[in-house]
Amino acid sequence: MKNNLLYWKIFVTLLLLLVLLGIGYIFISTYTIQRYGLEVNQHMHRGVAAHLVRETQPIKNGAVDTAATHDIMHSMMVINRAVEVYLIDTLGTIIDYVVPFNEVKLKKISLEPIKTFLADSSISYILGDDPKNLNKQKCVFRCTHSGR
What is the pTM of this model? Predict the structure, then answer.
């Protein structure tokens, strides 16, 4: 009888250990997969902003050409609804944007992530401010300097 009880204690201990390892594995895998997805997304679409600026010329004669930017921004969103396009000035103030449902809450974003993104292409991914959420950084963004 005592031997039987010892086996049950060992069995329950090993079962609990296995369950805890399984839960840990699930959390680590989920975290890693999410981060990998963010990295791939940012890397894959790295040149989108530069292409957008080349094609639209968002600033003409020192002023924002909203007709041109909204047209190309709308076309990009038709292809990929997850795309949100913001035109910002050198201080981080949002000048113009096209996003689904017009839920932009921030008037200004931090430029540090953008400067880092433009300066170093070897970084896996960079988190930037989410203009649609006051307290959250949104992961992937693509940016370029308009040169104007």
Answer: 0.67
